[in-house]
# Entry
Amino acid sequence: MLIAANFKTFKTRQETLDYYRDVRTFIEKNKITVESMIFPPATALNTFKGATVVGAQNAYAVENGAFTGEIGLNQLKEFGIKTILIGHSERRHILGESQELMVQKFDFFKEQGFTIVYCIGEPLEVREEGSETLMAYLDEQLEGIDLNYENLVIAYEPVWAIGTGLTPSTDEVELIHTALRQKIKAPILYGGSVKVNNAQELLSLNNVDGALIGSGALQAENFCRILEIAEGLQK
Ligand code: 13P
# Structure
């Protein structure tokens, strides 16, 4: 099982250090074996020593170059970062990143051997059209992505469940994860309003291999409580 926290545009460098220290202490004290990851903002990347993997929320598909506002491979290498989030709905829908750009990033970081947490998820209007349309939409987001890549993790995050407090029913989550499992051997995380109080039921579902959590993991204490729940369910 893998529990990941996406800080998005929250937390400073110092707050990230404090968070990491609290999580490390908890993991060591409680002998947590569940895998954990955090994705702080680029300004808080650092050399962290501990069991929790630190990844980048985004990077451009270059070593370095003239790409104002972006960071590339060399900036990640400085901190030994070897994990990246690609395809998050906020990058697709707010920042307007295309599938073509996702594939470009995927191929580049795959070539570098990065662990890639690749996000997919449908907006509400797609879900309302039924499961066939929904699965077709998810398939489009997987187009061009090497699903057999050994360091791939998929995160299924329905757009309408992100930051809203809404989640699909457990039956729906299980149905979609099971359908995805037919073509994806990689771990499949669920994301979208995962909190301490619903983690147990979501993480217990078949073909849910962990969670990608935003607001529900912004407090180190909550992240640790979800790690503890996952540890209890370890599968
Ligand atoms: P929330 O947990 O805040 O809904 O965000 C989910 C998410 O987007 C994680 O990447």
Notes: The mean pLDDT is 97.
